[in-house]
Hints:
The protein is an alpha/beta fold. The chain has helices spanning 7-12, 43-56, 79-86, 100-112, 123-131; strands at 15-19, 22-26, 30-35, 40-41, 63-68, 74-75, 90-96, 116-120. The protein has a single domain, classed as Transcription Regulator spoIIAA, CATH 3.30.750. Strand 1 (15-19) and strand 2 form a beta hairpin. It starts with 6 loop residues before the first helix and ends in a 6-residue tail after the last helix.
Amino acid sequence: MKFEDSSIYKELNPEKLVLPFGEFYLTDKFIVAEIYDGEHVDWSKIELLLTKIESFYKKNTKLAYISHRINDYSVNPQIWSHWENTFDFIVASAIVIYKSTTLMNASIEKVFANKSLKRCRSLEEGINWVNNLKEFA
């Protein structure tokens, strides 16, 4: 189920950002990312996304990133460490997993992440985890 079709979406009423490779929902504490099927996420896409996000939020805003993996796509796992070193406003990430292959990929990505990265089985689990992060207390 897409984030837009969830009851949480209706409660939060996020700002929607559409880029050529995915849809991103911007809330006060987190971003929900839904990358399109068949995409390969490389540094140029991450840089475009995070530059757009930076312009939306106030300076010194801290956010979490939730990768809602409803589609099949690939990610260069080394992006995580480069992203964390370049854009410090993302304090933690969650990957919502629906398939066993996605779990394997997320496990590899977790190895490259320096900040907290949680693998979740539902969007609700990911959002609850993010909402309880000590960075937002």
